[in-house]
């Protein structure tokens, strides 16, 4: 009987997947930190779009 972890070590993840994941984390961090300072008036739509997600992650926005 093999453990599930042994099956995961056989999976090869391409290097570009790590780059895409890092880019996604950076964009997520920037969106979470946006409170209208960087984007100005256009941030209202962005703020409302991600509002519930921000609160779910514990990011203060008010």
TrEMBL record:
It comes from the Bacteria. Keywords: Membrane, Transmembrane, Transmembrane helix. The chain crosses the membrane at residues 16-32. Pfam families: CbtB (PF09489). This is Cobalt transporter. It comes from Lentzea guizhouensis.
């Amino acid at each position: 009987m093999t453990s599930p972890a042994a099956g995961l070590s056989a999976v090869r993840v391409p290097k570009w997947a790590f780059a895409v994941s890092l880019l996604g984390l950076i964009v997520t961090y920037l969106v979470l930190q946006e409170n209208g300072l960087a984007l100005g008036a256009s941030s209202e739509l962005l703020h409302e779009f991600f509002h519930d997600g921000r609160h779910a992650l514990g990011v203060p926005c008010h």
